[in-house]
Design goal:
Helices cover 40% and strands 18% of the residues. By secondary structure, it is of the alpha+beta class. The protein has a single domain (3-299), classed as 3-Layer(aba) Sandwich (Beta-lactamase), CATH 3.40.710. The strands form 2 sheets. Strands 1, 2, 3, 7, 8 and 9 form a 6-stranded antiparallel β-sheet that branches. Helix 1 (49-58) crosses helix 6 (156-169).
Length: 307
C-alpha cells in the first residue's frame, strides 16, 4: 500500500498530497527506510539505463566517458547531446536512420519551443533516449548481431541486458513490456531497483559498473541537461548520482553509497524530486541541503504565489 510522501501546503493548510513508495539503503546495502509497495514489481523506466549501460559495457562497448554517460541518459536534446549520439553511431558505421526510437522534438521546453519557432522537424536523434539506442546499436554491431531488430526482446542484446538487470537487482525480471522509446522494459521491485543502482554506483575499479558510474559523475550534463533537476543536483553534490524516469521514478546515490529510490504513485513529476530530497535530508544530515536547493533553480519552490 502506498504512503503519503509529499504535501503541497498553502498558508499552513495541506492542499494536495502525493502518495507513493520509497526505499533507502545504507552504504552496506542495509535497509534504512522502506514504505509503500517496495516489493511489488514495477517499471523502473529510464532509471534502468544505469543497468543497461552496464550490460553493454560488459558486452564490449568501449566509449569515452562523455558518450558512456550519454548511453545512460534521458537527455534534453542540446546540440552536444545530438552530436554525442551521432559520434556513437559514426563509430559503429551507422546513421540516425538505423535508430528505432521515435522522432521527437527536444525534451527541454525551451529547446522544444525554439525548434518549433525555427521550423525544425522532429528527429530520432532528438529523442531523449537516442544515446541509449545508439549504444544498443553499436553493441549489437560490435558483437556481430543484427541491427534492424535490436529492440526485439528475443534479440541477443536484449536477452543479455535482461540478465544484467536481474543480476544487479538480485531478483528475476517479473515482466517485460515496451518502454516509451520502443526498447524492452524490465519490471523489478523498487527494492530491487535500489539494490541495482547501488551496485552500479559502488562497484570496484575495473568493473563495467564502475565505468558507468564514473562516466556519469564526470559528465552530469550528458545524463540530462543543464536545465534539468538531476543534472543540477549532481553538480551541486559532487560524487552523487541521480537519475529520473518517466511516471515519477527517481533514484539518487550519495558518494558513500547511501541510496534512495522513489516512485510517486500517480506519476506526477511534481512530487518526484521533493520526495527524494526529503529522504536525503533525513539520512544524510551532514549535507547542507538548504544550500543545495538554493544553488539549483530546478530544485527550488515552484514559481507560484502563496506556496
Amino acid at each position: 500500500m502506498v504512503i503519503p510522501l509529499v504535501q503541497v501546503v498553502r498558508d499552513g493548510l495541506v492542499e494536495s498530497v502525493h502518495f507513493g513508495s520509497r526505499v533507502v539503503l545504507g552504504p552496506g546495502g542495509e535497509v534504512l527506510e522502506a514504505g509503500g509497495d517496495v516489493d511489488q514489481p514495477g517499471y523502473p523506466r529510464s532509471t534502468a539505463k544505469l543497468m543497461q549501460a552496464t550490460g553493454m559495457v560488459r558486452l564490449g562497448l568501449d566509449l569515452p566517458p562523455d558518450l558512456l554517460a550519454l548511453a545512460a541518459a534521458s537527455h534534453s536534446a542540446e546540440e552536444f547531446h545530438l552530436a554525442g549520439a551521432t559520434r556513437i553511431l559514426d563509430g559503429a558505421g551507422l546513421t540516425e536512420d538505423d535508430l528505432r526510437c521515435p522522432a521527437h522534438l527536444p525534451h527541454d521546453p525551451v529547446l522544444h519551443d525554439r525548434w518549433i519557432a525555427e521550423g525544425r522537424a522532429p528527429r530520432r536523434l532528438a529523442h531523449c533516449c537516442s544515446g541509449k539506442h545508439s549504444a544498443m546499436l553499436a553493441t549489437a554491431r560490435l558483437n556481430g548481431w543484427s541491427t534492424g531488430d535490436y529492440l526485439d526482446p528475443a534479440h541477443p542484446l536484449q536477452v543479455r541486458l535482461a540478465e544484467t538487470v536481474a543480476e544487479l537487482a538480485g531478483e528475476p525480471v517479473a515482466h517485460t513490456a515496451v518502454d516509451g522509446c520502443g526498447a524492452p522494459l524490465f519490471a523489478i521491485s523498487l527494492r530491487g531497483l535500489a539494490r541495482a543502482v547501488q551496485r552500479v554506483a559502488t562497484a570496484p575499479h575495473g568493473t563495467a559498473e564502475h565505468r558507468v558510474a564514473e562516466a556519469i559523475r564526470k559528465h552530469p550534463e550528458m545524463l540530462a541537461g543543464p536545465n534539468r533537476d538531476v543534472t543540477q543536483l549532481m553538480t551541486a553534490v559532487p560524487g552523487l548520482i541521480a537519475k529520473d524516469g518517466a511516471e515519477a521514478v527517481q533514484i539518487a546515490i550519495l558518494p558513500d553509497g547511501t541510496t534512495v529510490a522513489v516512485k510517486i504513485a500517480d506519476g506526477s513529476e511534481r512530487g518526484r524530486m521533493p520526495a527524494t530530497l526529503a529522504a536525503l535530508r533525513r539520512v544524510a544530515p551532514e549535507y547542507d541541503w538548504d544550500d543545495v536547493v538554493k544553488r539549483c533553480p530546478r530544485l527550488d519552490a515552484p514559481n507560484m504565489v502563496g506556496l
